[in-house]
Specification:
about 375 residues; seven-stranded mixed β-sheet; three-stranded parallel β-sheet; 15 helices; 12 strands
Length: about 375
């Protein structure tokens, strides 16, 4: 766990450096109308898509559970998934504003396109928590992971794996969607490690983060560069890594080059055990979801966020000093699966080691 400890410490330092003194909480703006909130709290939860396994499997149920705990079982979560459609998500926000929810948690499909709906919510006296992606507009709070650190962790893992071979060929860089501000931060973090150390033969911004689009991009990269020249692939997340690995196998790679990922999806954990994917980034969804729920319930009650954010803030393009919490991340490899996703209850050994992966688990010492 030495690597995990170092990464966590680095992320914690990044959180500390994000502090901008004692922030004047945006929640104060809603305090007058919410401070004497009586009766059950209704939280509107808007998630961006269902292509990535995490949203339906982790984020939604974890937020629902924490809201229930914080409200003694009286709180209600109204849920909508935008299925990668920013227009639909704006309509979903408007519907929740019309239905007078007490607070919104929004993971934006398009961080710019959501700004108008965030403004309408604020005008209606409904505070907004930006979740996982830093939405534009007058948001009241934000929680996510240190996204540049995610990219640095991915880049460093790839560089370390390549070792002395780092300058012997081309890297393919499969970034996320340009509509997601996190994707630009992952890329920036990764490039801060990789530039000057490897040759990036091809780079793509993958539309909608879809594995099928990553697969097509990878096929194009193989055709352009030649399979003998590709020594590694930076993939910004696990879903795309799956599409990339399918393309590599289809092209006849006898030994797969190291492929990165993010999100610690079950399929990715299994690919790591099977030596198909080199690494992922484990992000503690329980911690992120719990923080979002705590922020939302506090804002719905008109309470300040100091005890949650410890004075940390971030700036978006439209809003300065947004109260924030950034959750540390961990590089996930075969060596620390047991101490991360299994220990935190994300997956059981039985889920990971099902079917054809039992032999891989036995070899890795997972029982």
């Amino acid at each position: 766990m030495r690597r995990a400890a170092v990464v966590t410490a680095a992320s914690a330092m990044a959180v500390s450096l994000a502090a901008c003194g004692s922030a004047k909480e945006s929640g104060d703006k809603a305090e007058a109308s919410k401070s004497d909130k009586k009766g059950p709290i209704t939280v509107g939860l808007l998630l961006p898509e269902n292509e990535t396994a995490r949203y339906e499997k982790f984020d939604k149920p974890l937020i629902e559970k924490k809201v229930g705990e914080l409200t003694d079982g009286t709180g209600k979560v109204v849920y909508a998934n935008a299925k990668q459609d920013p227009t639909l998500q704006n309509q979903q926000v408007d519907t929740m504003v019309t239905n007078k929810v007490d607070v919104l948690i929004v993971d934006a499909v398009d961080f710019k396109a959501i700004a108008g709906s965030v403004k309408r919510a604020k005008e209606a006296g409904i505070p907004v928590v930006a979740y996982d992606r830093l939405a534009e507009g007058p948001i009241d709070a934000y929680t996510s992971f240190d996204n540049e650190e995610v990219g640095r962790v991915q880049g460093k893992a790839l560089l370390d794996k390549l070792g002395s071979k780092a300058s012997s060929g081309d890297i393919v860089m499969m970034n996320g969607a340009i509509t997601d501000p996190n994707a630009a931060q992952y890329k920036k973090g990764a490039l801060s490690v990789l530039e000057g150390k490897v040759k990036i033969g091809k780079a793509y911004d993958t539309k909608e983060w879809k594995p099928v689009n990553a697969n097509s991009n990878m096929e194009a990269a193989i055709s352009a560069l030649g399979k003998d020249k590709i020594i590694g692939v930076y993939s910004a997340n696990d879903g795309m890594a799956g599409g990339i690995i399918t393309a590599l196998k289809g092209a006849g790679f006898s030994t797969l080059p190291p492929v990165t990922g993010q999100d610690a999806e079950l399929a990715a954990v299994q690919r790591i055990l099977a030596d198909e994917q080199f690494m992922s980034v484990y992000k503690s969804y329980p911690q992120e979801a719990a923080t979002a729920a705590e922020m939302a319930v506090a804002l719905a009650k008109g309470e300040k966020l100091d005890s949650i954010t410890k004075g940390n803030t971030v700036d978006s393009a439209t809003t300065k000093k947004v109260p924030s919490v950034l959750v540390p991340v961990v590089s996930l490899t075969k060596d620390n699966i047991k101490d991360t996703v299994i220990k935190e209850g994300i997956y059981t050994t039985g889920e990971i080691c099902a079917g054809k992966y039992k032999a891989d688990c036995d070899k890795a010492g997972l029982k």
